[in-house]
Write a structure and sequence with these properties.
38% helix, Rossmann fold, UDP-N-acetylmuramoyl-L-alanine:D-glutamate ligase, 24% strand, 2 domains, nine-stranded mixed beta sheet, alpha/beta, 18 helices, 18 strands
Length: 494
């Protein structure tokens, strides 16, 4: 990152509610979820036992939904067919708060539909097994094209940025793109382009910024990115010169993003390692955040850092899941070790963990007093975090500690203990409980893994019965010999 988490949080909090126009290919994303636990006797293929189906608006609709979730006002222009899929797309987007008045229904083509079959093992760990596409990629009819241009022209005076989301499905022809870009630039509206995977990018000439990923940039330039830090510079300069851009943002997955601005040296914006569950939607999330930042007059450097964080959060979720500003702010505060971002109220945390679990993330829970934090605690918590994707730490309240350990404990108050735990990178959430044991807390949070110290071997563990009934596991963590809060307190008396 080029900016500190505190700077990014302050910038994001200051953003207003700009009006952003999205133009692009509309897609219905369908997900068929089921358990994949055996092979077919008819052929060497998995059998999926269907559990549920979900529908989402994809393509340009996904960008629009992301923008709305981020707090922008969004209008969407595109075409759908006279079919159930088209009606579903419009209904989903309207329900998400997107202005769908500019979406046209046409009779000569079906709504582009992508159906993904997702297999789960033991009701979790979703993996995409097959994708089935229904689409028409011929250019849209002249009448629809002209109507779309009129809608864009009428909308430009009311918007602060315009996004072009191109999936090369017949809507955004070379001529249409150039007319939209020309109209927008004459109106003083920035144009952000998420390009299609095509060899010729001339249709995007004159845009403000373009955001290809590694593969798209290689296809468009004919250059191979073997050494990211060297080749990214060459690719960026090639696209800047060819397309007369103000900026170019190359999204480079685990390497972060490379930003090149006109008349400025390039910047590599690194990102932290993530548990990648699904890259679907990551590019759309980056475009949405860049558009929001651009519309709110943030610098490109600031916009790219925010896009890096938003895209990183998106790949940790299965499917296309909108993010709110609040979630991104919480991530920034977690990066600062902020107790406000990690300390959670029980009912909110239970709902949040349920969503995370549905997205395939493994929830780990442990608990304790954590009165005077020492190396043994740190090693223990790092071990616990390694058992899954999110670590929740339950912390005894002050009254609970006094009942368990006597009137002279705790040494440190609950707020202080929560603050110290929140500062640890291994800890994702901290939650206080008043009971003597975390039994009720475990029942509410329903973790996949319960971790306790090795000294609990052959001893009853509060909540273990709940976790096992849910199909989870109880894991005993190795302990660092000679480290305990009681020992620290006793030594202090010498």
């Amino acid at each position: 990152m080029q900016h500190s988490p505190a700077e990014l949080a302050a910038t994001l909090e200051a953003f207003g509610q700009p009006h952003i126009l999205v133009v692009g290919d509309l897609i219905l994303d369908q997900y068929v979820y089921g358990d994949a636990e055996r092979l077919s006797p008819e052929a060497p293929v998995p059998v999926v036992r269907e559990r549920r189906r979900e529908r989402q608006a994809g393509g340009a609709g996904n960008v629009a939904a992301f923008l709305t979730a981020l707090g922008a006002r969004c209008s969407l222009a595109g075409v759908v067919g006279q079919d159930d899929a088209g009606r579903a797309v419009e209904g989903i987007l309207a329900g998400a708060g997107v202005n769908t008045e500019l979406i046209m229904t046409v009779a000569d083509r079906p709504t582009c539909t992508k159906t993904r079959f997702v297999g789960l093992a033991q009701h979790r760990h979703p993996q995409q097994m097959l994708r089935l596409d229904l689409e028409e990629t011929e250019p849209i009819a002249a009448a629809a094209r002209n109507e779309l241009l009129n809608q864009v022209a009428n909308s430009l005076p009311q918007v602060q940025a315009l996004c072009i989301e191109d999936y090369n499905k017949g809507l955004l022809t070379d001529e249409l793109c150039q007319e939209i870009i020309s109209m927008a630039r004459k109106a003083g509206v920035a144009v952000l382009v998420d390009p299609a995977s095509i060899r010729n990018y001339s249709r995007y000439r004159g845009a403000t910024v373009i955001t290809p990923n590694r593969t798209e940039a290689e296809v468009a330039t004919g250059l191979c990115m073997n050494d990211v830090r060297v080749e990214a510079v060459a690719l960026g300069k090639h696209l800047m010169g060819q397309l007369q851009l103000e900026a170019c943002v190359l999204t480079l997955d685990r390497h972060g993003m490379y930003l090149l601005e006109k008349d400025k040296p390039g910047q590599m914006h690194t990102t932290r390692a993530r548990n990648v569950y699904d890259v679907t939607g990551a590019g759309d999330m980056v475009l949405a955040m860049l558009a929001l930042a651009c519309a709110c007059k943030a610098s490109w450097s600031m916009a790219v850092d925010l896009g890096n964080i938003a895209g990183g959060l998106e790949v940790e979720r299965f499917g296309c899941v909108p993010l709110s500003r609040g979630e991104i702010l919480a991530e920034l505060r977690r990066a600062q070790g902020s107790v406000e971002a990690k300390a959670a109220e029980v009912s909110w945390l239970a709902a949040t963990l349920a969503q995370q679990r549905q997205q395939g993330r493994k929830i780990v829970f442990t608990n304790g007093v954590f009165d005077i934090l020492h190396a043994g605690h740190v090693q223990y918590l790092q071990f616990a975090r390694s058992q899954g994707d999110l670590l929740v730490v339950g912390v005894n309240s002050d009254d609970s500690v006094r009942r368990l350990k006597g009137s002279k404990r705790p040494i440190n108050s609950l707020p202080d203990r929560l603050a110290v735990l929140a500062a640890l990178q291994a800890v994702d959430y901290v939650v206080a409980f008043e009971d003597d044991t975390p039994q009720r807390l475990v029942e509410m949070l329903r973790p996949d893994v319960l971790v306790k110290g090795a000294d609990y071997e052959n001893k009853p563990i509060a909540g273990a019965d709940v976790v096992k009934q849910l199909g989870g596991q109880v894991v005993l963590a190795p302990l660092l010999a000679g480290r305990s809060t009681t020992a620290v307190v006793e030594r202090s008396k010498l």
